Structure formats: C-alpha cells, structure tokens
C-alpha cells in the first residue's frame, strides 16, 4: 500500500520509526517531512498530507504532531480527507470501519512506538463496513461528511 506520512518537529522521531517499520512491512512510503531538527508549523504538513491523499498519490495517510490534534485539524481542511485522531487500536479500526477514514493522526508526546504501530496496523487492516452494511448507514453518513465540506 502507498502510505504518506508527515509530522511536525515534535514527532520526527516517531515518524522515522513508523516509516522504517512500514517499509520493512512492505509498504511504499511517501515521507513528506520534515527532517529532524527543523522547527516547522504543523498546518503546513497537515496540508501536504491532505493533498497527496486527496489526489490519490497515497492511499492512506499518517499525521503526527505533539498531540495529534493540530495536524489532524489541518489535514481535515481538505474536503477529501477524513483524518481521525486515534490513541489505541480500537479507535483506529472504528475510524476505518464506520467512517472510511483515509488518514489517522497520533500524538508523539502521548503515544509510544508500540501503541502507534498497533494503531497503524488496525488502520491498515480494517476495511470500510460498506460491503457488509446492508442498510447503507455508514456510506450515507460518510457521504454527508463530504456534503458538509461543500457547504450543504
């Protein structure tokens, strides 16, 4: 799977560890930066991540900052992005299953590497519930999210 990953300066260590692990797992990774030691603003990297997920360059995205909050807000400014802030595997799985999340965000100051890997694994392995949701309630709700960003 092609996965984009971006962070701010508070999360470059976590980003590097996740990037290397994902490569070892066989994924193609687009590291959008920054490099360790650079002081940067999370909105710039959340925007970059949102753009590559929205245009299809990456199938999924991982956004990281100190808390995960700021970069998730920035990524979600793109109407094609559904970025969920997660802290454990169940929230990562439910974000995919119920909300068709195409990005997750985590906080490097709040989430250790083992928990981050567990969240990423759940995010990547869980499918959207559309196939087994005969009532179509999840698709209907996700479609409403797109309409909200279009001003409807």
TrEMBL record:
Protein name (Swiss-Prot/TrEMBL): Ribose 5-phosphate isomerase B
Q: Which UniProt keywords apply?
A: Isomerase
Cite a single GO BP annotation.
Answer: carbohydrate metabolic process
Q: What class of enzyme is it?
A: isomerase
Encoding gene, per UniProt annotation: rpiB
Gene3D superfamilies from the UniProt entry: Sugar-phosphate isomerase, RpiB/LacA/LacB
User: A single Pfam family, by name?
Assistant: LacAB_rpiB
Is Isomerase set as a keyword in this record?
yes
Q: What is its EC number?
A: 5.3.1.6
Q: Where does the chain bind D-ribulose 5-phosphate?
A: 8-9, 66-70, 99, 109, 137, 141
Q: Catalytic center at which residues?
A: 65, 98
Q: Which family does it belong to?
A: Belongs to the LacAB/RpiB family.
Named from the GO MF annotations, one term is:
ribose-5-phosphate isomerase activity
PANTHER family membership: DNA DAMAGE-REPAIR_TOLERATION PROTEIN DRT102, RIBOSE-5-PHOSPHATE ISOMERASE B
Q: Where is the signal peptide?
A: none
Matching InterPro entries, A to Z?
RpiB, RpiB_LacA_LacB, RpiB_LacA_LacB_sf
